[in-house]
Known about the structure:
The protein is mostly beta strands. Helices cover about 0% and strands about 40% of the residues. A hairpin with a 2-residue loop joins strand 20 (about 275-285) and strand 21 (about 285-295). The radius of gyration is 21 Å and the shape is globular. Bound molecules: fe (ii) ion.
Amino acid sequence: MAPPPESTQPIQPTHRYLAGNFAPVRTEQVLTGLAVEGTLPAFLDGRYLRNGPNPVGPVDPAGYHWFLGSGMVHGIRLRDGRAEWYRNRWVRSGEVADALGEPRRPGPVHAEMDFSPNTNVVGHAGRTFAIVEGGSRPYELTDELDTVGPCDFDGTLSGGYTAHPHRDLATGDLHAISYFWGWGDVVQYSVLGRDGRVSRTVDLDVPGGPMMHDFAFTDHHVIVFDLPITFDLDLVARQPFPYAWNPAHPSRVGVFRRDGDGTDLRWFDVAPCYVYHPMNAFEDGTSLVVDVVRYESSMRTDHTGPFEASPTLDRWTIDLNGPSTVAEQTLHDLPSEFPRIDERLTGRRHRFGYSPVSSDPNVEEPEFDGLMRVDTTNGRTQVRSFGPTRRSHEFVFVPTAEDSAEDDGVLMGLVSDVADDTTRLVVLDSATLEDVASVEIPARVPYGFHGNWIPTGQ
Ligand SMILES: [Fe+2]
């Protein structure tokens, strides 16, 4: 186990993303023999992993943005109805290795961006990768979350990657949109095959340096979000993060065919907003339907993180035979984020979505206290509250079996108790949001970004 970093400089609580349960933890732990309440289903054989920012050394609050903290991956190993271990590990970039007094891991860093990926963690081709956007490469982890090093998928990844690849279950491929300020007006669509090598790339002309955090695809189309948070070199000297709200940049949604070369890219105007995460997209006749978590703005007034206005869950419809505008409809206005679906349906028509949610519709800085299940066919929601001192992180859906129906499975995610700094891995029946089981983790897991259930062997 690595020692904690030498510096214990106190965190200034005035920075929202360094205070409370955003504050980083200072140690790496391995905890075994975790208590389980209820019964963990036998089909849960694998690891639940979750990535998030956790600065490794001293932090200058004036120079900190939530998106910049070193990545720390938290994991829980489930098998045979038991929770075998919890562990947390910093992702060893050079800076992190130096801070921990360890040798640097060798590997193909892109454009000197040796950044500790802090945004997502995925399993693919039997390997585990911590990932981030903006030009940095994935860092491969072992099954027990130790860092192997930066990875370019056997030399097939030309630049950086993304925090939000999406798997097409029909092929097992991972699809991605990558951007990097050093590429100028180009963003790249890529397909990572089941063999763990990039099989296809398409360069797209997208001027203005937008931050493309996520994207969506359908059976035949790729959907990209060109929205007004953009890179600005002048910001480097003025604020921690070189991307910010840019009212001069258009808001539009791009569509191109998955099997083409990108020259058919067509733009559809949408009202100014920012979308970090689509829930899913699918085809409906000649239209594309995209469910998104929409912010009126983000990083416009607050340059320390994304939350400055309550988002809504909206449905966007793009008629490929119609005008070059997006039709918008709000499905629900409870503040929610980190939407997930039954991902066997990624790119295809889904009915249900699941998101951490705040029970206070007026909250502007979501600290989610519940989980929402939304029926997107009618906007009806069920909300499971975890109680006044408990805070929900992202939840993922795990089907009961490969061929079970949509929504037949469990939802799995972390719930923090801010009263005693403990955490639970909570497993709920996806259809009822009632408890199935929970794993008690006697450690604090800070708020973070994304994670996944990685079945053994994936
Ligand atoms: Fe994200």
